[in-house]
Amino acid sequence: MSEQNDLVKRRFEELEEIKAHGINPYPHRYDVTSDSKAIITSFTDPQNEEETEAQKQVTVSVAGRIMAIRKMGKATFCHIKDSTGKIQIYLKRDDVGEDAYGIFKLLDIGDIIGVKGFVFRTKTGEVSIHAHSFELLCKTLKPLPVVKEEITETGEKIIHDAFADVELRYRQRYIDLIVNDHVKEIFIKRTKIIQSIKRTLEDQKFFEVETPTLQSIYGGANAKPFVTHHNALDIDLYLRISNELFLKRLVVGGFDRVYEFVRDFRNEGIDRTHNPEFTQVEWYQAYGDYFDSMNLFEEVVEKACIAVNGKPEATYSGTVLNFSSPWKRVRMVDAIKEKTGLDVTNTDKAALIDFMKANNYEFDPKIAHSKGLLIANLFEVACEEDLVQPTFIYDFPIDTTPLCKPLREYSMQQLEEMKKDPEQVIYAERFEPYAYKWELGNSYTELNDPVLQRKLLEEQVERGRGGEEETHPLDEDFLNAIEVGMPPTTGVGLGVDRLVMLLTDSQSIRDVIFFPLMRPQ
RNA sequence: GGGACCGUAGCUCAGUGGUAGAGCAUCUGCCUUUUAAGCAGAGGGUCGGUGGUUCGAAACCACCCGGUCUCACCA
Q1: Nearest CA to A217 among A481, A440, A394, A423?
Q2: Residues of chain A with pLDDT under 50
Q3: Phi, psi of A156 (to 5 degrees)
Q4: pLDDT value at position A152?
Q5: Peptide bond before A312: cis, by omega within 30 degrees of 0?
Q6: What nucleotide is nearest A123 when CA is compared to C1'?
Q7: What's residue A519's pLDDT?
Q8: Does the nearest atom of strand B lie within 7 Å of A442's Cβ?
Q9: How distant is C1' of B10 from CA of A145, in Å?
Q10: Strand B: which of residues 237-296 in chain A lie with Cβ below 7 A?
């Protein structure tokens, strides 16, 4: 049960005292007629006695949480906070009555009250409410961290004793939100970003859908899943690592433009940019290719940035990122050539490995069988760190994904010959958008050739049996859908949490997720 | 999983071997336009946990718990 320190004990005593006065400390409702922001922005100073008197006749009713109390004998100032901001309340014994004033003395920082009164400006210049009456709406039992704000003569706001313990902030986010204004701002921006993305997609006639979180076969990405169990069916199920294969089924079913915001779950490490559950938006557009997706991706992000920052620029860790379209577009092999000087298109695999070893570009020996994977690896270790301004990297080796179409420039015969030669790298119409060195998403001209699709997925399963981790089991029903026929299609996945981080200058993914995963205490 | 660092009052933090401190918050008194309100006084701690070293541990050592950063992992 709750620990009984002196502060809590005292509040229980106050609670009993309030009840003893016949007051319900937890009433059912309260009529709110205004809010702190509206009151402060709409206030105009009276020009004469008449106007002053007239203002006193107008009663407002507000409600909020007490954030500061300054008792001065028979009068008290306090600040209450509502969802729009803070406003000062001026409360005199002679106005509210001796009994009520006595009750007010039993209130604490954190308690929620309703106040009725008129608006005025104090001697020191703050627009405030002169209370006729107040009503206790919730007596609180736990003390709130005391955070004090000082406004300097230059108008700067200094926060004293900020509630800063990161662990406590994440574990008790409700307290974080109450006392740290900037935290609430970030989450308001998060929602605005999501709304903006939806608006951009809806304007382009994309249709919002919902697909399963619980899946009997996981796929669409390369990641370790969370496993759970369904009792009635007595089967193991997986929490989705991606919704890609289901959205494609819907395109097969005739939904030409679909999108879904989903929580994906990946059973992997936790760090500054990874949480086990995270949010992605994926959209699929029939009859388009990956260039269409680049265009739309730029538009989606630029508009989201404007929605929260008022301009297509965001400052992250002191670096100004310009999301104005068009973004830079660079082929992966060109990015490698520019950075390392190596033209991988006329380098054989052995020479590539030598080059990487000679230049200390690390790679996992398990990928050494594939020239394509080596190239993708070289790109990651050599080039990613330079991708600060928004950039599309495109044309990935096909070995990096089984779900993407090869480049259109290959003839069918050429492709057949290339497949036989391990020195030949087939490139696929895949791109990844980068900003501040992070992958912001992933996109393909989707593979809709059922024969090649089956072959690539079967190869992946084979590699899985060969010990390569994190490949997924063969999804026969998905292959069936592709055999039923999917129109030419392009699809995009966008990492919402990382985008929110970039647009709100947040240093950890935990700062943009209300309740990040923490080890239970 | 490796490495570095952190855990002291409700909150923010000082305290490096001699028995626990400050500011805010809380409580009492004064104060009817204050705003980090002020003035005077008071209470509040198993110093993350367990073991060890020592005459003596918040401090030193070991292990454990929780966290932060970082590396590894991560399409």
Answers
A1: A481
A2: 1-3, 467-468
A3: -75, 145
A4: 85
A5: no
A6: B33
A7: 86
A8: yes
A9: 7
A10: 266, 268-269, 271-272, 274
Nucleotide nearest A244, from its CA to each C1': B75
Please, what is the Cα angle at A441 between A280 and A226, to 5 degrees?
A: 45
pLDDT of residue A360: 85
Nearest-CA residue to the C1' of B44? A6
Residue with tokens 């390392």: A340
- pLDDT score of A468: 47
pLDDT confidence of residue A156: 84
Taking the CA of residue A154 and the C1' sugar atom of nucleotide B28, their distance in angstroms comes to 38
Residue A128 Cα distances to A43, A83, A88, A151, angstroms? 10, 17, 5, 16
**Chain B bases closer than 7 A to any CB of the protein:** 1, 9-13, 23-27, 30-38, 43-44, 65-75
Q: ipTM for the complex?
A: 0.91
* Beta carbons within 8 Å of A14's beta carbon, 6+ residues apart: A106, A107, A108, A139
| 3-state class (DSSP) for residue A324 | coil
**CA of A145 and C1' of B48: distance in angstroms?**
20
Output the six-digit token pair for A389.
Answer: 């301004």
Measured between alpha carbons, how far is A357 from A126 in angstroms, rounded to an integer? 67
Half-sphere exposure of A77 (CA within 13 A, CB side): 12
Strand B lies under 7 A from the Cβ of residue A15: no
SS (H, E, C) A415-439: HHHHHHCCCCCCEEEEEEEEECCEE
DSSP A490-511: EEEEEEHHHHHHHHHT-SSGGG
pLDDT of residue A3: 45
Residue nearest to nucleotide B73 (CA to C1'): A269
- Dihedral (CA of A461, A429, A289, A202) sign: positive
- Residue A104, CB, strand B, below 7 Å: no
Name the β-bridge partners of A81.
Answer: A65, A86
Which nucleotide comes closest to A362 if you measure CA to C1'? Answer: B72
Beta strand A207-208 with A257-265: parallel, antiparallel or unpaired?
Answer: parallel
Element (H, E) at A7: helix A6-20
Strand partners, A433: A392
Q: Which helix (H) or strand (E) holds A130?
A: strand A127-138
pLDDT tens, position by position, A399-439: 999 999 999 999 999 999 998 888 999 999 999 999 999 99
Q: What's the CA A276/C1' B64 distance, rounded, in angstroms?
A: 26
Strand B proximal to A341 Cβ, under 7 A? no
Compute the distance between CA of residue A325 and CA of residue A312 in angstroms, rounded to an integer: 9
Taking the C1' atom of B37, which residue's CA lies nearest?
A70
The pLDDT, as a whole number, for residue A219 is 86
Q: Point out the nucleotide closest to A125 (alpha carbon to C1′).
A: B33
